[in-house]
Amino acid sequence: MDDMKMELRHLRYFVAVAHEGHITRAAEKLRMQQPPLSQQIQALEREIDAALFVRHPRGVTLTDAGRAFLADAEAILGEVEHAKLRARRTARGEVGRIAVGFTTSAPFHPLVARAMREFRDTRPDVSFVLEESSSADMVSGLRDGRLDVAFIRSGLVDPEGITVHALLQEDTAVAFPAKHKLSKRPALALKEFSEETFILYRRPDGRGLYDVIIAACSEAGFSPHVGQEAPRIVSTLNLVAAGLGITIVPASLSRLPLEGVVYRPLKGKPALKVPLNLACRRDERSAATLAFIDLVRHLR
Amino acid sequence: MDDMKMELRHLRYFVAVAHEGHITRAAEKLRMQQPPLSQQIQALEREIDAALFVRHPRGVTLTDAGRAFLADAEAILGEVEHAKLRARRTARGEVGRIAVGFTTSAPFHPLVARAMREFRDTRPDVSFVLEESSSADMVSGLRDGRLDVAFIRSGLVDPEGITVHALLQEDTAVAFPAKHKLSKRPALALKEFSEETFILYRRPDGRGLYDVIIAACSEAGFSPHVGQEAPRIVSTLNLVAAGLGITIVPASLSRLPLEGVVYRPLKGKPALKVPLNLACRRDERSAATLAFIDLVRHLR
DNA sequence: CATCTTCATATCGTCCATATATGGTCCGAC
DNA sequence: GTCGGACCATATATGGACGATATGAAGATG
C-alpha cells in the first residue's frame, strides 16, 4: 500500500519554487530557510518517483513531469480552498438544498410563495426540492430525511420527533357552480348551505378539511348532505364545476380559476377557518433549513 | 492572509471518520489512537470554521457542511493520486507531447512515417505537434523550445547546442516533364543532363539541395544551366510539369504523383545522394523526446 | 583564479502530532 | 434508580519530523 506521506505543504512549496524558479527566493517568499525547502522538494520527488526540477547553477527549471505536476498541484490547492469555502457556506446555510413538502392547497397561499421567493433572494445558492403528498406521507418523509419541512393543513398534534408550527388560520371560501342561484351574492354564511349537496375532500389517511367542515356545519345547526368524496382537492372542484354540488376550500384557492366554478368568501358565524402549519424535525441541524423555518415563522 | 494549516492528513482522517461514522473505529483503521484523531478532526473544523460532524453518544454523523466537504475531500485525494501518477508517467516519457519539425520533403520518406507510427503504438499518450519550415527556422525553433526534434536535409555541421544525427543518405530521382525525350528510360545518369535546364530548389537561407546538386554536376564534368529557382520543392515540381526544365529530388518524393511529371532514379557516377538527418537539442531532458530520438536512430 | 550565487548536506533545536491516561456523557440493563 | 459500557473530549508526556543554522560543493562571473 502507498505510504501517503504527501501533504499539501509539499504542493505549496512546489508551486512556490516552480513560480520563482529559485529555491532560495521561494524560501524567502515562504518565510522559511532554503535548506528545509530543498529537502521538502526532494521528499516530494522521492514520493512521486520522478524529478520535478532540473537544478542549474542559477536556479531551477521544471522538467516535463514538473510542468504536468504544476498544473495539477495548482488545481488541487484551488480545490482545497474551494472545498473549505463551500463547507463553511453550507454550515452557514448559504448553500444547500431544502426539500419542501406541500399539501395540495398550500402552494396557493401567498405566504408560501413569498417565503420561498424571499429565501431564494437572500440565499440564491440554496435550492428547493418540492414534493406534494399527503400529511401522513410528509411526516414519514420528514422522519426519514426525504423532506426537511412540510406545509400542512392538519392539526397541531406533534408526532414524535416532529414539531408543527402554527402559521395562520385561513378564511375559507365556498365554491359552487357558476349558474347556482346564490352566485350573485358577494359573501355567504355557512348555514345558507344547509340544503346543498357537499362535495368533500378526503385523503386516504382521513386527515384534511373533512372533519373541520363537518364540525362547523353541525355547529351551524345542520348536518351536511355529502354527495360525493374525492381524494384530491382539484377533483372536488371539477365535480363542483360539473354541477354536482358545492364545496368549501381555503380562501387562497380562489386564485385557482376553474371554468364554471365561482368562489365566494364564507362569512358569519360559525367562523370556518382552516390552519396552515409548518412541520419540521424537532432536532433539525441544517442551517439552511433552520433559516427557512425562521423566515416562514417571522413572515407569518 | 490565510494560515493554510490544512494538510492532506486532515482530509484522509476526515474521510475515514465520515465513512466509519465512528472516531474510535476510524482510528483503528488508520492505525492510530482515538484522541489524536479527535484532535485532528477538531483542528480541521476550526480551520474550516464549521462543524463537520454531529457527536452522538454512539458515533458521529455528518452535518450538511460535512457532507459537502466529504465529496470535495474525496475528489481532492483522488486528484492527488492522479497528479502523482501523471507526473511519474510524464517523467517516464509515457505521456507528453513532442513537437516535430520537417523540411518539405521529409514526410515522404518511409522512415519518418514509420518512426511516428511505431512510437505512437508503444506510447499512445504522447501526442505529436507537427510543423513544416526551413532548416534555419527549425534550428531556432529547437533552441527556443518551439520544436523538440526536426527532420532536416542539410549537413551535419552542428549549430551550438544542437545535435544533428545522420540517419541515412537517400538516393535521388530526376523529375522531368512527361513528354520529355528521356522519359522512356528506366534510369539515368547525371551527365546525361548536361544540356538540360535545371529548376532548382533554394530556400531563402540558402541551404538545401542546391549546393549538393551543383557540386555533383561539376564533378560530372559540366556546369548546370539553371533556368529558375523556387523556394519550395513543390513549386519546382510544378515548374517541371509546365515543361520549364528538370529537377532532382530525394527518391522518396517519387511517391508524390504530379500530373505531367515523371520520376526516374538517378544512377551511375557520381552518386548524387541527399542526407536525411535528425536535429535535436544537445541537452534534451524530455524522456518522451529522448525515446523518440532513440527510436528514430535505431530504425535507421 | 577568486568570488559570488545557488543548491545540497549535516547537525541541532523545537514544535506538533501522536500515545497514554483520565474525565465526561449518554444510553441501556438490571 | 444505579451501574456499567460505549464513545468522544481533555490533559499530559513523548518522539519524530520540520525547520533553522552552519557548512560544503559546483558552476557562473569578472
Would you mind describing this structure in some detail?
- With 300 residues, chain A is α/β, with parallel strands linked by helices.
- Chain A folds into three domains: 8-91, Winged helix-like DNA-binding domain superfamily/Winged helix DNA-binding domain (Arc Repressor Mutant, subunit A); 95-167 and 275-299, Periplasmic binding protein-like II (D-Maltodextrin-Binding Protein, domain 2, 3-Layer(aba) Sandwich); 169-274, Periplasmic binding protein-like II (D-Maltodextrin-Binding Protein, domain 2, 3-Layer(aba) Sandwich).
- Helix content of chain A is 40%, strand content 25%.
- In chain A, strands 3, 4, 5, 6, 7, 10, 11 and 12 form an eight-stranded mixed sheet that branches. In chain A, strands 1-2 form a two-stranded antiparallel sheet. A two-stranded parallel ribbon of chain A has the order 8-9.
- In chain A, strand 1 and strand 2 (60-62) form a beta hairpin.
- In chain A, helix 1 (8-20) crosses helix 4 and helix 5 (110-122) crosses helix 9 (287-299).
- The longest helix of chain A is centred in the N-terminal third of the chain and has 28 residues, at 64-91.
- The two termini of chain A are 59 Å apart.
- At the A-B interface, helix 1 and helix 4 of A face helix 1 and helix 4 of B.
- Chain A binds a DNA duplex (30 and 30 nucleotides) through residues 9, 22-24, 32-40, 42, 55-60.
